[in-house]
């Protein structure tokens, strides 16, 4: 029963993100967490603050404004004291050159008492880089920007 509840909450979170409400995902992060998006591109990097995650989500939707997330598979193990989740999610959206971004990401999440303590995200980085290149070619230089870090969030807060 617990695993079904967690899966339903994850599906709801992806649905909320689809409608532009990424803040609800940020709100589920534990006070101390790690978010890693593997690769070397504008969306990659490691973050540990809600501010950096907010800046990251804002970038995602500046780059792919109509991004959609479709959970294909959710695997859950453990109890509420330590829940391990593996997801396979289709992500897609129109690109400025008229083509479509279509990729599959896998995520490994760890939760403690309903709060996310770790997320590890991996997409096909070749497909992602092609999309970022198309976005940059259309005039959005942020598609080739350095990854967002916790230091970026501190600079925004201070400045």
From TrEMBL:
SUPFAM superfamilies the UniProt entry points to: NTF2-like
Signal sequence coordinates: none
SnoaL-like domain sequence ranges: 11-119
Domain of life: Bacteria
Gene3D superfamilies in the cross-refs: 3.10.450.50
Pfam family, one: SnoaL_2
Protein name per Swiss-Prot or TrEMBL: SnoaL-like domain-containing protein
Originating species: Streptomyces blastmyceticus
């Amino acid at each position: 029963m617990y695993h079904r509840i967690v899966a339903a909450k994850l599906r709801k979170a992806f649905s909320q993100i689809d409608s532009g409400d990424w803040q609800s995902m940020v709100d589920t992060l534990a006070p101390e967490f790690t978010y890693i998006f593997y690769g070397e591109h504008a969306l990659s990097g490691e973050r540990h603050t809600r501010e950096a995650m907010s800046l990251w989500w804002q970038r995602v939707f500046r780059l792919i404004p109509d991004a959609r997330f479709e959970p294909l598979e959710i695997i859950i193990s453990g109890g509420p004291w330590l829940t391990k989740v593996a997801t396979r999610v289709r992500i897609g959206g129109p690109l400025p050159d008229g083509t479509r971004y279509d990729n599959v990401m896998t995520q490994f999440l760890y939760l403690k008492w309903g709060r996310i303590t770790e997320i590890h995200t991996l997409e096909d980085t070749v497909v992602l880089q092609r999309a970022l290149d198309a976005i940059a070619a259309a005039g959005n230089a942020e598609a080739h920007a350095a990854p967002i870090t916790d230091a970026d969030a501190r600079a925004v807060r201070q400045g």
